[in-house]
Structures
1.
Amino acid sequence: MLFYSFRMNAPRLTWTDHHACSCWQLVRDAYHAPAAESPLTEPLARLRAAFAEEHVAAEVFLDHVVPLSFSTANQRELAERALVKTIGRAETGMRLNRFHGLVIDIMAAADKAVPPHAKPSPGFLQQQWNQRGDGLLACIVNFSEPGILADEADIVRIDPDLPIVGRGYLPYNLVCIADVPGDVSAELPEVVRLAWLIALLNLDLPRYAEQVRLNPLMTVVALAMLPLALQASRLLELGGGDEATIRQAIASWLPIEDDRDRKTETLLQWWDVYQSTRPHFAAGLSALDQLLA
């Protein structure tokens, strides 16, 4: 029987299907490499040009527009809110009309690619979460520290036929994840992927985020939390938690395009030290940030 040394208040999860958010998650994942003959190819090319010409950071804009689409139905308002979050209100006005037009065109194209997805009853992933989720999160807390989890989160279920990567949006306490009918890998259960994404959502708090100065916050926290989630999976006998499984998870779950091999080896080195010293998690993030630099 597994003993949890820390008490945990499980986050309150709201499961939902959200068409616009699903569309923008598809756009987010297709931005760098849209599928051949995709209706998104042409509008995404115009979006890339707009980012370059208007000096708007693409990754920052996309990381805001996806979760903002969850709460913003008006497309002009969506473009404005995403721009303000990315470049500030003073710089938004002169760019708003162009990006509003792009948001309309991209949403129209994505709408053709994203089928309606609504399940009145819990699907496979939600059923697995109801059985295993609290145990996984309790283990993650045990490997890190009390208070590391967000109080609540929205889980957007996305059609599993879409080529999307599950992603957590830290400032918005929102996770987008494919509503799969079953596990793709026995070593990497989807419920563990979801636990990993949920465990990231509080790591934009200052006590954690201020420790990451040399690399993008999402890169560092996603890597750091990964072995903790996989170790939780191993202890609950859901999947593997060894070095090979960590490598497999990085390849499958993390869209790292640059220097993947070095980052993987660095994480494995960090994890060995973390297990033996068990520092405060913020200090662990600082150490990993420095190792990755």
Note: Residues 124-143 form the longest helix (20 residues).
2.
Amino acid sequence: MPAHARFAGRHGPAVLFLLVAAGLLASCATVPKNDVPQGFAGVVIPGTETAAGAGAPPRHTSKAERAEKTPQRTSKPKKAGTPRRATAPRKTTVTLAQGERSLFETIRSVGKSFGGNLVAMRGIGQKIVPPLSLHKTPYRRYAEALARGTGVMLHRAGPYYFLYPDERYAPLLDLSLAGQLPPRYDEMRLSLALGDGTRLFNALAMISNSLGVSLVADNAVADARCGEMVLTDVSLRVCLEALLQSARIQPGGITVHRGTSYVFFAMRGRTRPDTYLIGPEPAPGTPLAEAFVRETHLAMPRRVPRGAAMPVYEGAVSLGGVLNALSSQLGFPVEARGDAAQLPVNPFVLHGVSAREALDLLVGQWLTDEYGYSVEGAGVVIHAVQPTG
């Protein structure tokens, strides 16, 4: 199932529409654990801006609305890259007539037709929504009807509504990334739809590849599953908050490490060294020394051009299975020694980071400090840290 992305220019807002439905995993050629796909169907297809506004979830329009949107000859053309005004839930109305249906199916159907901003916590998507009949109902009342019909709670979290089971999960409402991310994450905008059960690493990789950012998480965080959601024209920061909230990640459960060109989400309490490099740097003036500081685009477990369709992965791939792709993209040989070859590498995408930062982010995925990398000859070897003394 294709999706659409819109990019309004280097300095304008970027808009992405991403759909990763739980059922899509069965229809797309997905990647089993420890296996790299030979052919797969991606779910993000970059597109160009159209009069209908590619990039936002589609909505049904009446004949009068279509006529109103048709440009007249006397109309002043809109400048390319002009930011769209954010769509708040209260601005959207919903017309719907359906029998009993699951919560995630209802959210997905309404999101596809009308857009809006609604996020469900992982684990409640299978709840049954009783028959609904709505006509031009304000989005807030639609969200309230879902909460009332399924017996869950509703919270307004900025531009979106959040559905969660009960007060035991109220701490999720305090999750905030304000002040922890690059300022431009408040300016970048996107529209996104995710299916219940989507792995967080898939969402981060697809957003990174489409928006040209670098979002990575350690394995404890990245393996979490997100809930059903639809977000329309929200900031990247708000989108990331919604992802973590839906995946039931507590506000005190993670630490955000922010580099010049990346954001790394780690399990709370886990220390992260400045680098996992063991031993000396590459000799000055050598090709490896130059490659270490050169900016790179890296996609694991295999190369994917920026903005191209991303595969949906079911799990991690072994380090030994990605060494060729890693070496090819970094521009120097990367090897694994001993049991390091069996370490799990979750899918991720990096933009504008140095090769050294890329290696640090790769090794940083693992929930142990027992591994690092060393310079050997013209390349790098990833291996266990040798005991001292």
Note: The two ends are 57 Å apart (CA to CA).
3.
Amino acid sequence: MKMLIPLLLSGCFKLADEMSVLNTTLIPFDNEFVTADDAVIQSFQTELLCPDDSPATFHLVFQPSATEPAPVVILLHSGTFDYVMDPGEDGPLSGQHYHAESRLSGEFATRKVWETLGLQITDLDPAENNLGTLPAAFANRGAALLIPGNCWGDMWHNEEGSQFNDVSLDGFPRNGLTFASWMTRLLSDVSFADTMGISWPTPLDASSMFVVGLGEGGRGVMELLKHSTSPTFSGAAVDSVPDTLSAMIDNPSDYKDEREGIRRIFGELEDIDQHSFAAGVDTPERFYYLWSSANPQLPTAATEPATLALRGQMGVVIHDAQIQDHVLSNSDMDIAEDLVTFLLGPADE
């Protein structure tokens, strides 16, 4: 993997009105909730390929003025479910997708990261109110964020060599978990970072590593907590995670299309709920489970069982926001700051 000049997709994100000259190496992270003076975004292309053969890309949010190693938050975004429902004749990506716009491309993944940062021009997921409050809250506390873009539509589950998708139907391998696990290895394994050609532009504290997931990104958190190469995380959090997938699998009248896509990702569905917080996952010393019993995008049966499994565990906070919203911490600064304070501890006065 090699580090390339960061991407600039000027049609995909917005900049501060007063900016007339843009440094395309470092893009300002300056949504309305960011109070840190010099937070910037740097993007890195990799040798791992998306289904459309474009390079998978991850993004680092940091403050160039930082002199002390910063805690690092791996942030896994939502909106990572897609498959080709009606294949065409021009390759595996041709034909009708689950979503009107394909989510199996590098362009989608980068646009989704901008949306997560609250820098989008148009929303990819109108059902989510992505204002960028959560990454802003972390940046305001001096944390660095490492945000991989998922272009595989696999809910962060698949990894070539261990957790395969149905390649015979998809026509390509999915590697969301592969890419997520690369983030932990790049931070904790110097030799791996050197081999991949990564040189961090700012000091990062790999001993203070957190992982946070929004929507389907919460499933990626669960996968990383179970992954053999993962380090010991200092803390983790999930927000609006579709955890118990049998809530959809067992309801084909309402979730017929979702059922087929999930089958392509996971294979046999009889034991689908083994891949869940509800089934039991060793959590780090600080774990925040954010959900809403009034979430209009997920059945309660997909989110509530995990609360029953996690309740009473040491170091676990369960917060039912009880509001009609999805991906709650990225639209509400109070919720975001509560989550961040729990993971990082109180801010220094």
Note: The radius of gyration is 19 Å.
